[in-house]
Amino acid sequence: EPGKPAGPVSARWLPAAPSASLLTAQALQECERAEAFHRKVRVVAGAGKVPVLSRPQRSAGSHGEGIAEGTTVDVIARFACQSDGRVYLRLQAKTGWISTRSIDDLCKVVLEPLPGEAALEPARFAHP
Questions:
Q1: Cys-Cys link to 78, which of 6, 32, 37, 98 (CB 3.0-4.6 A)?
Q2: What distance in Å separates the CA atoms of residue 53 and residue 102, rounded to the nearest whole number?
Q3: Residue 80 is inside which H or E element, if any?
Q4: CA angle 116-92-88, nearest 5°?
């Protein structure tokens, strides 16, 4: 028939999603002092939206709309920043980093582990 393909229509090839190890390696390239840290974390109720940062630094620009309170996300790396006292987590599904504490208020925790999981911050960062 006119306008109809002569043979079978082939499906377009799509690459597989990057593996967790590949994403972790990428995060470690973004921040060489980061460590592999595969966890699910949740934005604390009342925290508002947590900004997604381009780098694990308080002064880094944010991109995207942020992550809404109550949302659970997968992270793949952790960086404990001595200079600003914050712990940053690298997102798995999006490019970017989130801080366990508010960018504006170091005393305000905005991310929490899931029930039964260990703390997100190393002990030396738990109490600013």
A1: 37
A2: 12
A3: strand 72-81
A4: 70
Strand partners for 77:
36, 90
Q: Long-range contacts for 103-111 (Cβ within 8 Å, ≥24 apart)?
A: 103/51, 103/58, 108/47, 109/44, 110/43, 110/44, 110/47, 110/48, 110/50, 111/41, 111/42, 111/43, 111/44, 111/47, 111/50
pLDDT attached to residue 20:
66
Say which DSSP state 1 is in: -
pTM above 0.85, yes or no: no
3-state secondary structure of 42: strand
In this structure, are residues 90 and 30 in contact, taking their beta carbons and an 8 Å threshold? yes
DSSP annotation of 123 reads G
65 neighbors 51 (Cβ within 8 angstroms): no
- In this structure, of 17-26, 78-87, 103-112, the range with the lowest mean pLDDT score is 17-26
Q: In this predicted structure, what is the pLDDT of residue 62?
A: 84
